[in-house]
Amino acid sequence: MKHRKLGSLEVSAIGLGCMGMSEFYGSHDDAQSFATLQRALDLGVSFLDTADMYGPFTNEQLVGRAIRGRRDEVVLATKFGNERNADGSWVGINGRPEYVRAACDASLKRLGVDHIDLYYQHRVDAKTPIEDTVGAMAELVRAGKVRHLGLSEAAPKTIRRAHAVHRITALQTEYSLWSRDPEDEILPTVRDLGIGFVAYSPIGRGFLSGRIKSVDDLEPNDYRRQNPRFQGDNFQRNLDLVTRIEELAREKRVTPAQLAIAWVLARGEDIVPIPGSRRIPHLEENAAAADIELTPSDLALINDAAPAGAAEGDRYPDMSRVNL
Predict the structure, then answer these.
(1) End-to-end CA, the chain
(2) Can you tell me the distance from the alpha carbon of 80 to that of 164, in angstroms, rounded to the nearest whole number?
(3) Measured between alpha carbons, how far is residue 164 from residues 102, 125, 232 in Å?
(4) Is 148 helix (H, G, I), strand (E, B) or coil?
């Protein structure tokens, strides 16, 4: 597996998003996910992304069990800020300093480690100044509990204010062939500051893989059924977009998912995609995308097939209320 730099932090060129192993995408199988995590490390996919709210809390425990005895092989990222109760109910977004400290200690215990390599604020708390939140995060670095700091889904001005308090190593935001909004302001901002970019959902929550042909392909409790891009006329228009990607993938002799990941990788050496995988075959397929070279001609054809703004529907039902 090739490597890339997120600021001063070196990680595998492709990471592994672990959210779906515990929640949101229908049923889950811990034994299967455990095996997938172990296989990821065998392949050199060592940048693992989790969060305290996934499960809630159980995803960190799963990742912790999988890396036990292999901690030195892993660059471990987790997040705080989307506060939930143990029964899964939502509390709200929380960036208060006392919560930051308590959340970190709880994550360390669940993960079974003595430090977190990259600690993100999952969502920005509008009620708490970012300087206060990042100030508390900086205390965790000085205490040796955290090595690097990150933000997720933060606006350019917020990123700059946070970076002025303590160096931000990585900014994580959704980015893919059907979510290209970061190109407008986010990517220029982080590049100006020397911050790495972590792209979550690089396969469009699985849609760009071509495996989802109908909403009925999703389990009844799969939250994507409530996602605007998976509903009504939006679904069919987005399926037309995927058809174009599938045609290009066939010409390139790769899978649509691999083409989508390779495209994200080609957007810059400072970008690291973290596709989610619950099964070993999908993990292996995604990991192989690191070796795909896209020519300028390939990139032009992909851009013609999936230009910015091509996807129909919002990323979330209501970004003002969603905490995911």
Answers:
(1) 29
(2) 20
(3) 24, 18, 44
(4) strand
Block residue for tokens 């669940």: 110
Give the Cα separation of 156 and 159 in Å (integer).
5
pLDDT confidence of residue 320: 39
| CA–CA distances in Å: residue 77 to residues 104, 207, 301 | 12, 25, 34
Contact assessment for residue 167 and residue 149, using Cβ atoms and an 8 Å cutoff: yes
**φ, ψ at 222 (rounded to 5°):** -80, 120
Phi, psi at residue 13, to the nearest 5°?
Answer: -60, -25
Q: What angle do CA 285, 287, 290 make, to 5 degrees?
A: 120
Judge contact between 19 and 172, C-beta under 8 A: no
Active site residues: 54
The SS3 call for residue 62 is helix
C-alpha 243/C-alpha 246 separation (Å) is 5
pLDDT at 324: 34
Place of tokens 């982080």: 190
pTM more than 0.85:
yes
User: What does the alpha-carbon distance between residue 81 and residue 263 come to, in Å, rounded to a whole number?
Assistant: 30
DSSP label at 200? E
Q: Which residues of the chain have pLDDT under 50?
A: 318-324
User: Do you find a cis peptide bond into 56, omega within 30 degrees of 0?
Assistant: yes
Specify the 3-state DSSP secondary structure of 90: strand
